[in-house]
Amino acid sequence: MDKGTPSLLVTALVALVFGFAGAGLWNWSGMGNPAVEAYLLDNPEILPKMAEELQRRDAEKRLGAVDAEVKAPFPGAILGNPNGSVVLVEFTDYGCTYCRKSVEDVQALVAANPDLKVVIREWPIFQGSDGPARMALAAAKQGKFEAFHNAMFAAGSTSPEAVEAAAKAAGLDMVAANEFAASREAEFELMKNRSLAQQLGFDGTPAWVAGDRLIYGAVGRAELSEALASAKES
Known about the structure:
Elements: H1 5-21, H2 34-42, H3 46-64, H4 67-71, E1 78-80, E2 86-92, H5 97-112, E3 116-122, H6 130-141, H7 145-155, H8 160-169, H9 174-181, H10 184-200, E4 207-210, E5 213-216, H11 221-233
Parallel strand pairs: 2-3
Antiparallel strand pairs: 1-3, 2-4, 4-5
């Protein structure tokens, strides 16, 4: 974090103060306004709430530009109910330990909510993850995504041998699968997912979209469930 960041954060937080309290509360004359400074010093507990609100508004703005696209799955790359009205998006990588740990959380959420559609966006960021990501898309094309997805994570490896074993365990037509994995369509999907992740401000996997919330990391099923419940109510 550079030295200028704190002042930028304060500026943004003060701007939120005006958003919450109304522009007419103070006669604003810059960051040196003693009334604003006194208010913030007398009410420091408001700062974390303001920071949280700032992050929420920023996430909402970023997601708003790509919401429909990010929630539209690659054909077949879905867990749970393909027609579900409650949508959870996961950006994942088969070489990611935390993604592997999140598999049980997603399975539990699907089991608990028959209306849940989990859109999986393949985002290979670790070395060796490109191959299994492409094969996962090939599995989706053949209607066997979930079987490959689970087998691949269970393997605990992204080696070519592990990818082939998971593909065979899922019952893929290997000739067609290998052909698709090398196709421009597969390449385009991975490029699109990378672009979407960057636009959303994600810098690692797993990363999630639930309603208008962006969630970073392996947060566990409780937080994901709460986010989905909030999205369903809104």
